[in-house]
Amino acid sequence: MDTAIRMRLRWFVPPHELGPVSSALNTLMVAARGQPGCVTCHLSTEVGVRVELRYVEEWKAEEDLKTQVRSSRFSRIAELMERATEFPEIEFSVPGGTRGIDYAEEVRGGGST
Fold this sequence. Notes:
Strand order of the largest sheet: 2-3-1-4-5
Helix content: 25-40%
Number of helices: 4
CATH architecture: 2-Layer Sandwich
């Protein structure tokens, strides 16, 4: 039974952005690993005609994830995603199911449903 709380991001950047974006993401990953509730996080890249970035964070509890989504660290991740050459994919795996960007907007905006 997979009960992991996860944030998955996938996006493409221009080849000349790979170095700066990867460096920034590595810094953010180190910061995430020091946060309470962090299980793991990792970054992978696939370099071809386009450069694909895949970034994943796993948290012990949904509240840990929500704390991170509200953080300035998440804001920095969102800024990096703005460098994408096409609309990024974002997915949150939480106890209620899999959600998209609406989850982040709800958590950051304090919205309730």
